[in-house]
Design goal:
The complex is a heterotrimer, with one copy of chain A and two copies of chain B.
Chain A lengths: L30 H11 L9 H13 L9 H19 L13 H27 L25 H10 L5 H4 L1 H5 L4 H13 L3 E3 L11 H18 L3 E5 L6 E5 L14 H16 L16
Antiparallel strand pairs in A: 1-3, 2-3
Helix pairs in contact in A: 1-4, 2-3, 3-9, 8-9, 8-10
Chain B lengths: L2 H10 L7 H4 L8 H17 L4 E6 L2 E6 L4 H4 L13 H13 L2 E2 H8 L4 H9 L3 E6 L7 E5 L1 H7 L36 H11 L2
Antiparallel strand pairs in B: 1-2, 3-5, 4-5
Helix pairs in contact in B: 1-3, 5-7
Classes of the chains: A mainly alpha, B alpha+beta.
Chain lengths: 298, 203, 203
Amino acid sequence: MALSRPTVGSGSLFIPKEGFLLVDLERFQGPLDLLLHLIRTQDIDIFDIPISTITRQFLIAVKEIDVGQLDHAGEFLEMAASLVRIKAQMLLPRPSDDEDQDPRAELVRRLLEYEQIREISMRLKAAELERGRRFSKGFVPPRPRPRQRDVPLETAWEDVFEAALGVELPEVHDRGHRVTLRPVAMEDKVELILSTLRHGTRVEFSRLLRGIGGVEARLHGVMTLLASLELTRRRWVFMRQVAPFSELWLYRREEGQGDEGGGAADGVEAVWGEEAADGAETSGENEPGAEPPHEETA
Amino acid sequence: MNVAQIVEAVLFASDAPLKAEEIARADESLDEDRVEEALDLLRRFYDESERAFQVVEVAEGFQLLTRPDFATYLERFDTVPRPSRLSGPALETLAIVAYRQPIGRIEVEYIRGVSSSGVLRSLQDRGLIEVVGRGEGLGRPLLYGTTARFLEHFGFASLDELPRPEELPIVLRDRIPLGDDEDEGEDPGLQPQLDLGGGEGGE
Amino acid sequence: MNVAQIVEAVLFASDAPLKAEEIARADESLDEDRVEEALDLLRRFYDESERAFQVVEVAEGFQLLTRPDFATYLERFDTVPRPSRLSGPALETLAIVAYRQPIGRIEVEYIRGVSSSGVLRSLQDRGLIEVVGRGEGLGRPLLYGTTARFLEHFGFASLDELPRPEELPIVLRDRIPLGDDEDEGEDPGLQPQLDLGGGEGGE
């Protein structure tokens, strides 16, 4: 991923002066941290965030993410999606200009709250450091512990019974901790779309999300959309929607329609190309049309 | 044996803070008040005789700890256990739990913007937070709160010693355009929950 | 900082006895002789001011320990049985074991959604549950059930007396099977908890 910096051919994109965007994303604890960094280092009034500028900068930074490596890549992308949504909402005429209707309000609230939490955790760190300068008694001779068995128990059956009434099987995501720990990988979605389209010429977007519910649904939706956009940009698929909010269809582009060189200068291209190639290899399928524009040298 | 001696022996033989009423269990002749008196006496004696340790109020109890000035000498010894340091994510998560307890995982994740089950788990394993109940709603989510060990780790006497939001440079009140919260219904800043901490302090 | 203070701090905070030459490493200004002098000074001071602790020389070096005369208080302090209540997690775990016995740790953790080896251990220590057998499958897991003490404490003549009203969660009332992977013995989703569970059990 270090190969291509966001040189981003299109001149429309904001290129930071000092290059502060070229920071190690691992340094940031999450999307809110990154957003705050962008806002605070540029002396932006947090109550009047220039949403399109910030969105652009955020997207540039997020393009740096190597999804396979960064723990929280999914969350960065989810934030990217909601920034884009806010940006779109800003363009819509609002009923009145009262502040409550500002699409940015919730984001601002979250950012301020997060900043406060960060300040508190810095204070905690200082307290930890201070406490670390004091030492307790190092050696305490072990003495026999009282036998728990001899300890009178004050608990009544009602307490146990009440606890029994409260027992509930946790939701799937609650016990499958790995599910939430590991972000939804975009390459999986790319692979899902490609393999689905191998068996048919088109597929509904909603069908790609079938069977996914609960808290995960949103993230899966975002990742599937991003994967679709990526494949569209690479001209492996195209998308069609008849009317706003109607079903979104993904169509397979026929062989030969694929654009060999398609935007290969873009940094993202290389990253995704690599992962898509890996995916194709493991599944043992290498359709000529689906050959990613990627050289094995990297 | 006078009271101060007994109290000193008990403090000296413990590796964790003890509440006055716990210390009082050492002898029938003791009660909380007499223990507190003895603690005062010891505190003054250690100060006047310039002991290397003092009586420190931690986690709603009392503990003998070395004065901070001796840290540089002590850090050279392998036989002196090193204090542990928490990671950035752990501190951030603890800050949220401390101020918003009882709080569920989903809310923690909404505030942090990143998934947090791993870090919550590890804080639980270190005894810094614990499950304090279950919330309403779908799946009756587990709610977390801080433990006595949390206070101990940071050297706080009680939750009251946490910085109050109004002391922080970033002020949440007043200026926030509290809009129609789109999905998360409840999210009333940090303010109200602090009372909770205060109430527990128990004076 | 005088020499005696430094020596006192080191002796206090060290978790093992130290020889005079080891203590001398605390500061460049120290050597074995000066440490020995300081040790003498401390020894006399503790005696004269009738501290509850003293400098003790053992084979491996010097240590600060409480005087033997206080042993009875310390013992008492530790063994006075204080009536205690079960915590929320303990109540929940006990309820699950009571209604689903015999049950293994993995299943308890599956239902609770959190690692439970610590809380199972403490219920065992309290004599409320015990190992009643081993399950089938990988590793032949220990199965827990309630004890006679459990029945006695809660006033049941036998387990048949446990109420099973309608409002009891179905997972406890009808003992619905847990997941489709039960027969495989190991739920991959539980893996992380397994590791952590092991850690939590430690003293």
